[in-house]
Amino acid sequence: MVVAAGRGERARSGSADPKQYHLLAGRPVLEHTLRALLSADRITHVLAVIHPEHDARYEGIGISDARLLPPVHGGATRQASVLAGLKAIAPMKPDLVLIHDAARPMVTPEIVDGVIAGLADSAGTLPVVPVTDTIKRSDDGRRVALTEERSRLFAAQTPQGFRFAQIFSAHMRAERLPREFTDDAAIAEWAGLEVAFAPGSSRNIKITLPEDFERAERLMTGNIPTMETRIGTGFDVHPFTEGDAVFLGGVRIEHDRTLEGHSDADVALHALSDALFGAIGEGDIGQHFPPSDPQWKGAASRIFVEHAASLVAARGGRIVNLDLTLVCEAPKIGPHVPAMREAIAAMCGITPDRVAVKATTNERLGFIGRREGMVALASASVELPRSA
User: What is the DSSP string of 247-284?
Assistant: First the structure.
């Protein structure tokens, strides 16, 4: 059972995806984890417990293996998610169950075999590695109370293995307690079950913080600089015509004129689209959405940005940041900047703090100064896997 029902917010690094769906070496973390477990000969079935809102994300994981069961939805806590998974597989009456964190994509068949072997004479087994740091205990978080005996300390990993009937019973009873357990071995201990150690691995890391992705990438690929940064720029200009509103950055702004164009004439999103296309060497907006094609007449320009962002993702890349400058005498842009940042971030699957929107006038000079039109300039920074 792979527990993948969390939102993984601590590990986000500019990505809107929970950590289990964040790309690692070009594939979602969860896909790596599932494939790693399916590579173990002694695993007969694998079940993923996912968040109810992540069905579409999970469907994007392309694994065709008869041993991979349809996913089930988890609960509000890890403990509740594990119990949901145990209930789902109870009708199969398995002898043994291994419970693994989705955020440990580098588990090996050797670790799995060691956990299963330990269940021959123990109710539970978990992989561990010795603690190498000196551990200090504190009562107030400021001063040392004592130094722990390091030789008696071990860091717990997953998968943690159990005899199914015993851990299922323990989880059912623990559900009624007013406390939460941090792992399944702790529930087994509370239930009076003997839990033994099996060899873990320093490579079996758990992705918890943003920097863990870089470490996992290095371990998985053997490459230190696995990504490279690309920069793209975009420029667009549209004239004003009769109307009562303009679309800028995906936001409708009331105005005494409108922008003229084949689509909704969102000059901001057109410049951003070109910046993204340029960063990955994919031409410009006119090649992907020709103005001569009637299907794009009046189209929402968010379609163009979302397409550009999807091309970045398809290359195994990520958008680092977007920077947009609007040049016009009117309308006033400032009051709409927060909404524009939110809208653009949603189109690109990134957080709003990675989107900058600025505005300036042309000091009443030229066609902009005469309020005949407006200009947008954009830049996009993306990271792509380093090619050979």
Answer: EETTEEEE-SEEE--SSS--HHHHHHHHHHHHHTT---
CATH 3.30.1330.50 residue window(s) in the chain: 227-385
Burial 66-98 (b: 16+ CB within 10 A, else e): eebbebbbbbeebbbbbbbbbebbeeeebeebb
Stated pTM of the model: 0.59
Are the C-beta atoms of 25 and 225 separated by less than 8 Å?
no
Where do we find the tokens 């030229």?
A: 366
Q: How many residues does the chain have?
A: 388
Q: Do β-strands 257-259 and 318-327 pair in parallel, antiparallel, or remain unpaired?
A: unpaired
Q: Alpha-carbon distance 92 to 161, whole Å?
A: 17
d(CA 351, CA 13): 9
What pLDDT digit, counting tens, does each position of 38-93 carry? 999 999 999 999 999 999 999 988 888 999 999 999 999 999 999 999 999 999 99
* Rounded distance between C-alpha atoms, residue 153 and residue 243, angstroms: 71
Write down the CATH number for the domain with range 227-385.
3.30.1330.50
CA pair distance 371, 40, nearest whole angstrom: 67
Superfamily of segment(s) 2-221? Spore Coat Polysaccharide Biosynthesis Protein SpsA; Chain A (3.90.550.10)
Q: What is the per-residue pLDDT across 311-345, written as a single tens digit (0 to 9) for each? A: 998 888 889 999 999 999 999 999 999 999 999 99
* Tokens standing for residue 18: 């929970």
Residue list, annotated binding site: 236-238, 262-263, 270, 284-286, 360-363, 367, 370
Q: Check: CB of residue 219 under 8 Å from CB of residue 203.
A: yes
Token reading at 338: 């927060």
All CATH 3.90.550.10 domain ranges of the chain, comma separated, are: 2-221
Transcribe 298-325 into DSSP letters: T--THHHHHHHHHHHHHTT-EEEEEEEE
Q: Is the backbone peptide bond immediately before 331 cis, with ω within 30 degrees of 0? A: yes
- Which amino acid, residue 118? G
- Binding-site residue positions for a divalent metal cation: 236, 238, 270
